[in-house]
Design goal:
Number of helices: 6
Order of helices and strands: EEEEHEHEHEHEHEHEE
Strand content: 25-35%
Strand order of the largest sheet: 7-6-5-8-9-11-10
Low-confidence stretches: none
Helix content: 25-40%
Distance between the termini: 53 Å
Largest sheet: 7 strands, mixed
Length: 224
């Protein structure tokens, strides 16, 4: 018989309730308002996201990467494993408690990826960080990885969505260095998002990690 899930921490933050549950030694659930954000036993799409994006820029001199959303740290761990020791990785995470959990009860899942010396955690909205990097004279990123619990889909506002709308995609292109990589996690593929990517100056590859069960989508796009 499976052991029951136990809540080990719960935080009320404005309109969001963040909850961390544990079962046994290595099974964790991360929930937002009762909705499962991540399950520690189902991380193949997050690993693919970080690995594929960073492999494409690992050969650059001092590669600079932005990851939007920390989650349980699987995307960050995969990114670090694909990058050289000279890389700089900025993680934009709005909720400090997520960072605390990744440094505490979740640390063993990723060999304490957050504490890697290449990593800087920015408690900010990743959309704001991207806008800042797009401005004239700002330092660009070689790769921008969006790993949020809501990906592009039918409900995405096509023009003004802060991550997947046409304006945001144009800004993201400006925030990337020449030939830079933009990688996005999603629950399912979305044709409208793909068209907006192309219109914003990207080529893209659509990946479906795994062979059975729930298979999420990973978009890996390159700035033309």
């Amino acid at each position: 018989m499976a052991k029951p899930w136990q809540t080990i921490d719960k935080i009320d933050k404005e309109d969001n309730v963040l909850e961390l549950r544990k079962r046994g030694d290595r099974d964790f659930l991360l929930l937002v308002n009762g909705r499962v954000l991540m399950n520690s036993s189902a991380n193949r799409s997050e690993v693919t996201l970080g690995e594929h994006a960073c492999r494409l820029v690992a050969g650059r001199n001092l590669p600079r990467v932005l990851i939007g959303g920390l989650g349980m740290g699987f995307t960050l761990r995969a990114a670090l494993d694909a990058l050289p020791g000279s890389a700089q990785v900025v993680v934009a995470e709005l909720n400090p408690v997520i960072v605390t959990w990744c440094c505490g009860p979740l640390a063993g899942l990723t060999q304490s990826a957050v504490k890697d010396p290449r990593v800087t955690v920015d408690t900010d909205d990743v959309a704001a960080v991207i806008i800042g990097a797009s401005l004239k004279g700002a330092e660009r990123f070689d790769a921008i990885i969006i790993d949020l619990y809501v990906g592009p889909g039918a409900d995405t506002e096509p023009h003004y969505d802060p991550f997947y709308g046409s304006l945001a995609l144009s800004t993201t292109a400006d925030a990337l260095s020449a030939g830079g990589v933009f990688a996005v996690w999603g629950e399912n593929s979305d044709t409208a998002f793909e068209k907006r990517l192309v219109a914003a100056g990207f080529t893209f590859e659509r990946l479906r990690p795994g062979r059975g069960g729930l298979r999420h989508v990973v978009y890996v796009a390159r700035k033309r």
